[in-house]
Each structure stands twice: as C-alpha cells, then as structure tokens.
Predict the structure.
Amino acid sequence: MALRCHFNEHWVGANGNPAGGVSSGRGFTISWQNGPLSTGGVRREPNGAFVEDVIQAVIRRIEFYQSSQFRCDENADADALGFLQEAARRLDDRTKDRESRLVEGTHQI
C-alpha cells in the first residue's frame, strides 16, 4: 500500500524526548503536541494534537461511512473500526496507568 502522507517531521527536545512535529498529506495537516503538559507540577494547555485525538477522528469518519450507502464489511467493528477502537482503548489504558502513577503529562517513564 502506498503511503499517502507527504511529509512527516518529528521533533526531539534537548533531553532527547519526543517534542512535537508536523505531519501532512493530501487534505490534512497535523501539528503534534510539543512538550509535556505538566512542568514543575503546573499543568499547561495542549499546544497540538495527540495520537488519541487523531484516532478518534478517524473512528468517527468511518462510523459516518458505515451509516451511509458506503458501509462495508471491511469497515465494520471486526475489521478497521475494531482495530482502531482497540488502539484507542490501549492508549486510554496507558493514560490511566500513567495517571495512577502520577506521571501523566510528564516525560517520566
């Protein structure tokens, strides 16, 4: 399958941690979150997109197709939608784990 994303630039901060970046392709541009959401115990507003947000947007778009004349088995819950929903669940589990360990929003592992 041909990759349709025309451009990816992923940034790394001074400490070597992922820091943000830009992905773009036909009809979309994503500016990724740059830096942690919590610095010195102070929570800041997001400045970019998160992978979870993009996955949710794709889920909603495929659900939209499924409610139209373009529904198909390949989009159904057992296929594309199912895999995307599982990815969203796994990322949510990761977030809940990080929250329980009080490291969510930081670069702590």
Notes: Residues 8-49 form one domain.
